[in-house]
Amino acid sequence: MRGSFAKRTMAEPLSQVVASMPRGRFLALMALFLGPAVAIYTLFSIYPLIATMALSTYTTDSSGAYQFVGLVNFVTLLTDAVWSKPFWNAAWNNLVFFAVHMLVQNPIGIALAGLLSLPGLKLKSLYRTVIFLPTMLSVVIVGFSWNLILSPLWGVAEGALKAVGLGSWFAPWLGLPSTALVTLALISVWQFVGIPMMLIYAALLNIPDELIDAARVDGLGHFRIFWHIKLPLVLPTIGLVSILTFVGNFNAFDLIYTVKGALAGPNFASDILGTFFYRTFFGFQLQLGNPTMGAAVATVMFFIILAGVCLYLFIVQRRLRRYAF
Amino acid sequence: MNKGIAWMRGGVALAALLTGLAAAQAGSLKIESWRNDDADIWNSTIIPAFNKHYPDIKVEFAPSAPADYNAALNARLDGGTAGDLITCRPFDASLQLYQKHQLDGLNDLKGMDNFPDVAKAAWSTDDGKVTFCVPMASVIHGFFYNEDAFKKVGAKPPKTMAEFHEILDKLKKDGTYTPIDLGTADQWEAATMGFQNIGPDYWKGEQGRLALIAGKEKYSDPEYVAVFKELASWAPYMGSGFQAQKYPDSQNLFSLGKAAIYPAGSWDISTFRKDAQFPIGAFPPPLPAGDTECYISDHTDIGMGVNAASKNKEDAKKFLEWLATPEFAELYANALPGFFPLSKAPVTIKDPLAAEMVGWRKDCKSTIRNSYQILNRGTPNLENELWNVSAQVINGTLAPDAAGKQLQTDLDKWYKPAK
User: Fold this and answer.
1) pLDDT tens digits along B57-103
2) Which one of A67, A100, B71, B109 has the lowest number of neighbouring Cβ atoms within 10 Å?
């Protein structure tokens, strides 16, 4: 509310100052404010992106000489079973990885944010810090710790299950083809659940107390207030969290690489696009790196993410109603 | 055209540059290596020994993590920030660097004739005309055993597979020790310490390896499937949850004296020398029923070459010439027991376990891992497949004959042996 007040009083004079500026000074001002960001963004994001796309249209021979081949790399990647099988396997696994995050991480994040925003909750900032803490840890440390926790040799997981009489439930989850990927996804969920929690918590704090008070006067309990009033009001933030999760998951690499290595076993059960790209571009053990094919994989990954983001921007976000307070 | 490539490669190299690696300077030498475990020994023993001959040459040993080495090295070579001396992986990884003119040919290096052809083969062109790395060491596969464990169940090192399985049964019945200390989580141990370790006895070493390259034998042939069958039979003797047991887990399990038999690579000697508190013995791969001749995997593993873009090639060559001397062979073999020199000069190895392993060379014929030469040049990559299927065979998710068939089918997709 203070924001809209500031806009009403400040906006007019400021725009007059800008409008009455000589054209040269105006452009210089623009360059001053936008220049650094544009320069850095161009050098470190746009240029490598375009360079990667260009590289994907070439191929190399054994002497390292490059030849232009157009879209051949993409045709090979998507139609030749030698390439397309591991590619689709990685893409599917990536989708599963994303689904686990959407079904587990984000609902838990929302629930935690809802609990944190309850009035009268004690030790609020302690909970908030503790839940957010793993997010700040290095993925290498997280991967290593969970490797030890779940280790069938020295891990505490088996002992903990035995202590509550569920010892027979224990399995070497990280080593079985049926469970490795989901286990890794859950480790990632454990680490990053703090991010949706924080974003949604911040959005919940923005909801004016008048709305909540009115609902309470009408006789609604905490749960129904959350379900019918707070949740609809934070939907745009949930949309944002979903798209961040999507981009993050389809760029994921580090956790899988740390825990399972670049070969992402067993039998490529935990192979996602990031590890598939790594093996293709840099090579692995005796597999030689193939930079041009790797660039093609990176380009396809970029388009998958672009498609997902566009889908969200044009279809989902337009339907979300925003509430102005 | 070339300019177009240059700016694209520039984009790729940008990432490498950003990691802030300083370019090598003249007057000093930087060594690229994946042996980060050995950094202490290089700094405290090997480099000082070199400096006794050449006090003015400053040598820096700059290792990367083994799994990242090839990728990191290639990025640094492309970006022009790699060190002067490059530690060479055997066969194609280094051959590619030579073909891209990133490694110099070393045919006229003084001391190259100290090495037999078989040692140079791992770092030579296919026609054998140019050698581009100085052979440094090979590694030998076999089995380590906890002598206390063998004493407890009254076992002696097995000569045949039948005896090997008798011991395994005894150890399992006794229950004090995990009979076979091997995990499949990292996959490579299943292929390297399993398949390539016991395999040479089945496929008759070099004879079988060359027959595979010539296309006369196939991975789906009975002798190769038999290796997978043997591996599959190990699972009941391995620790519970071995599917999630990683390489360091296996090393710790053996060091702590909780396991009896460790399928080993000789490079493990220094780890166990440091950590294990019990006597360790070694035996070569037991012979399959009916065989009398033994074969061991004596794999050319590590060499060193000159970065073609080095600004200090003169000193780099001096270092390599010193690497080719018997003095270095003796020093390296004893500083790093388990890495066996490849030079013709006789070397005395003081570590008894290492001496025992190198002694197998007298009775058994040496061979190298059969997936390393030539058979890795296509897609899908044979070595990756071998890791994958070996781990699956031990996990029990792939039948031995299906494993052989999968390897051969994948190889047939691109490999056409010369007729």
Assistant:
1) 999 999 998 877 888 898 899 889 999 999 999 998 899 899 989 99
2) A67
Residues 6+ apart with CB under 8 A from A52: A295, A298, A299, A302, B11, B12
Q: Rounded to a whole number, what is the distance in angstroms from the first to the last CA of chain B? A: 38
Helix axis angle for A291-311 and A72-79, nearest 10°, is 80
Please give the structure tokens belonging to residue B310.
């080095």
Q: Which of residues 90-109 of A touch B (CB under 8 A)?
A: none
Contact A97, A83 (CB under 8 A): no
Contact B99 A48 (CB under 8 A): no
Instruction: Estimate to the nearest angstrom the gap between the alpha carbon of B2 and the chain centroid.
Output: 37
From the list B91, B100, B391, the residue facing A265 with the nearest CB is B391
The answer to whether the Cβ–Cβ distance between A151 and B241 falls below 8 Å is yes
Q: Compute the distance between CA of residue B21 and CA of residue B19 in angstroms, rounded to an integer.
A: 6
pLDDT the model gives residue B6: 53
Across the interface, whether the CB atoms of A172 and B245 are under 8 A apart is answered: yes
Domains of chain B: 2-138+300-353 (3.40.190.10), 139-298+369-412 (3.40.190.10)
Peptide bond before residue B380 is cis, with ω within 30 degrees of 0: yes
Q: Does A179 touch chain B (CB under 8 A)?
A: no
Minimum distance, in Å, between the CA of residue B51 and any CA atom of chain A: 33
pLDDT of residue B18: 43
All domains of chain A, ordered by start, with CATH?
Answer: 1-55 (no CATH), 71-319 (1.10.3720.10)
Instruction: Write b or e for each residue in B107-138: b if 16 or more Cβ atoms lie within 10 A of its Cβ, otherwise e.
Output: eebebbebbeebbbbbbbeeeeeebbbbbbbb
For residue A64, the chain B residue with the least C-alpha distance is B100
Minimal CA separation from B308 to chain A, in Å: 14
- Looking at the complex, report in whole angstroms how far the Cα of residue B414 sits from the nearest Cα belonging to chain A: 10
In B88-219, alpha helices (H): 92-99, 117-120, 147-152, 161-174, 188-189, 196-203, 205-214
**Integer Rg of chain A from CA:** 25
Q: Is the CB of residue B333 less than 8 Å from the CB of residue B341?
A: yes
In chain A, residues with a C-beta closer than 8 Å to the C-beta of B414 are 82
Q: Are A235 and A147 in contact (CB under 8 A)?
A: no
- Name the token pair of B301: 């593993």
| pLDDT tens digits along B304-335 | 999 999 999 999 999 999 999 999 999 999 99
Q: From chain B, pick out residues whose CB is under 8 angstroms from the CB of A258.
A: none
Give CA–CA dist B248/B254, Å, rounded.
Answer: 10
How do beta strands B178-180 and B259-265 pair?
Answer: parallel
Least Cα separation, residue A34 to chain B (angstroms): 23
Taking CB atoms and an 8 Å limit, are A153 and B245 in contact across chains?
yes
**CB neighbour burial string for B167-184, b if at least 16 within 10 angstroms, e if fewer:** bbebbbeeeebbbbbbbb
Helix (H) and strand (E) counts in chain B: 19, 10
d(CA B24, CA B3): 25
Chain B residues touching residue A83 (CB < 8 angstroms): 379
Q: Side-chain half-sphere of A168: how many Cα atoms within 13 Å? A: 1
Can you list the residues of chain A whose pLDDT is less than 50?
Answer: 1-11
Nearest CA to A300 out of A279, A282, A323, A276 is that of A276
Q: Do A284 and B391 touch (CB under 8 A)?
A: no
Are B202 and B224 within 8 A, CB to CB? yes
Size of interface A-B (CB pairs under 8 A): 146
Task: Provide the pLDDT for residue A222.
Answer: 87
